[in-house]
Every structure is written in C-alpha cells, then in structure tokens.
Write a structure and sequence with these properties.
- The chain is an alpha+beta fold and 77 residues long.
- Helix content is 27%, strand content 36%.
- Strands 1, 2, 3, 4 and 5 form a five-stranded antiparallel β-sheet that branches.
- Strand 2 and strand 3 form a beta hairpin.
- The chain starts with a strand and ends with a helix.
C-alpha cells in the first residue's frame, strides 16, 4: 500500500517469513525541497507479526501515520 501523508511518501508492506507469519513494515520518504538535498528516508523494520497479510499492512499503515505525526509534533516535518 502506497500513499502520501504530511509530505512523506509511505510504503506499507508485509514480509512473509518461513514461520508462516506476516511482519508489518513501513518505509517513509520525504523528497527534498531543494535541488542539492537528499531524500529523507526512514524504515521501520519489523513492527509486529500477524497471521495474515491484511492485518500486517493495516498495522504498518497505523504505525507510519503515528510516526509522521510524531515527526510533525517534534518540528521535524
């Protein structure tokens, strides 16, 4: 699932492991506002494990939205 939120491009996905579980993951990228800057990237790593892909993606989405809100509250967004 890909979408934009508060200036970030967000990619929520799950990783299906050999243990049969789906691990929620999210990547947030903010494109630079100047030509000489680099994109700001943050990867969540494994957030939590679920029995199905849909629940993992929903978790990743909620986690990413919270992360972006925290960045904004801290003045980093």
């Amino acid at each position: 699932m890909r979408f934009d939120y508060k200036g970030f491009h967000i990619d929520c996905r799950s990783r299906h492991d050999q243990d049969g579980l789906y691990y929620a993951q999210a990547r947030m990228i903010r494109m630079p506002t100047t030509d000489d800057a680099h994109p700001e990237k943050h990867e969540s790593g494994d957030i939590d494990a679920f029995d199905n892909d849909g629940d993992a993606i929903a978790c990743a989405r909620a986690w990413a939205l919270d992360w972006c809100d925290e960045q904004e509250a801290a003045g980093r967004a």
